[in-house]
Amino acid sequence: MQLFISTIGLLFVGKLLEPIWGSREFLKFIFFVNFLTSVCVFITAIAMYYITKQEIYLYMPVAGFQGVLSGFLVGIKQIVPDQDLWFLKIKAKWLPSLALLVSIIVSIFTTESASYLPTMIYGTFIGWIYLRYWQRKPETKLRGDPSDEFSFSTFFPEFCRPVINPIATIFERMLCGRRSEISDESGGYTLGGTTLPGSDPIEASRRRERGARALEERLTAERLAAAGKTDETQKDATENV
């Protein structure tokens, strides 16, 4: 069952992310998120074993694609944050948070789901770290996405952000070293007084437009394919009559 879900998720989300990121960056994302998620879950399991002395933590499933699928949701949040989902009345930017919330609720009632919860949490977090700080952008020759729309606090509701923002700022300084991100009049970020290319709202808007266009083209193609099959079915039925 897990293999089936992972395969469907890879094929479905890959149609949206791979054309925008490129094949190389898409594969790099899968590798890094899967590898680092497995390492983090393994370290957590060992730590919990030494703390609680319960052997159940030694048999936690470390390998798995759930972390990558969670990371894919973060990628959708980055590319088409304001896109309304066709099957739910929510915006795409809330997909990672909603998936984690549902997983936490389900894990309370089922032990099997609880064993995969750390994988999803680490997958979401590492996916965000990769896209925020490590992903190389060919159009700007920079790494990451420093826009405010993709900050860590955007994973939480508005009322939680005053508490999350100070913690996120400390984390930002740890990962970025001496890089100072100061919003200028145009809303861009600066490094030593020089605006970073690709960090202004224009670049972020272009990225969202590309993602929305790719999603719309894929949905249109699916609708046309479904309509074509319907017409063929009706034609065959007419000929049989």
TrEMBL record:
The keyword Transmembrane helix applies. Residues 203-212, 229-241 have a biased composition (Basic and acidic residues). GO terms for cellular component: Golgi apparatus; membrane. One of its GO terms (biological process) is retrograde vesicle-mediated transport, Golgi to endoplasmic reticulum. The keyword Hydrolase does not apply. This is Rhomboid 19. It comes from the Eukaryota. It comes from Olea europaea subsp. europaea. Residues 186-212, 222-241 are annotated as: Disordered. InterPro entries: Rhomboid-like_sf, TMEM115/Pdh1/Rbl19. The chain crosses the membrane at residues 29-51, 57-80, 116-134. SMART domains: DUF1751. It is found in: Membrane. PANTHER family: PLACENTAL PROTEIN 6, RHOMBOID-LIKE PROTEIN 19. It is a multi-pass membrane protein. Keywords: Membrane, Transmembrane, Transmembrane helix.
